Amino acid sequence: MELEQIVFEIISHAGNARSNCFEALRLSKEGNIDEAYKFIEKAKDELIETHKIQTNLLQKEASGDKQEVTLLLMHAEDHLMTAILAKELITEMIEMYKVINNTKESSLNV
């Protein structure tokens, strides 16, 4: 597979992961915590696929098959890192919404 195709696969999976994370955030803001977690799981699956691609590139380089570092490859890595950060932060935000929703429900039942 050519480097350009590999790069676009990384961008595609990372973009899907990021989109799933923000959908999870939207759902959690609406109080749909269980649905939000389903989208976080979808994001994790996309990131696993991206990690497999990245690991393959790293293994090739370690075995002596050096790849040219292009601006496009750096762009793909930026997308990946942004998606990973989004997943981590939004997972924490979902936990906060969960606590907020539970607190609201508790105060309504008093």
UniProtKB/TrEMBL annotation:
PROSITE patterns reported in the protein's UniProt record: PTS_EIIA_TYPE_3
Chain segments annotated as transmembrane: none
Pfam families recorded: PTS_IIA
Matches recorded under SUPFAM superfamilies: Enzyme IIa from lactose specific PTS, IIa-lac
Descriptive protein name: PTS system cellobiose-specific IIA component
Entry superkingdom: Bacteria
Residue numbers carrying Phosphohistidine: 75
Gene3D superfamilies in the cross-refs: Phosphotransferase system, lactose/cellobiose-type IIA subunit
Provenance organism: Thermoanaerobacterium butyriciformans
Keywords per UniProt: Phosphotransferase system, Sugar transport, Transferase, Transport
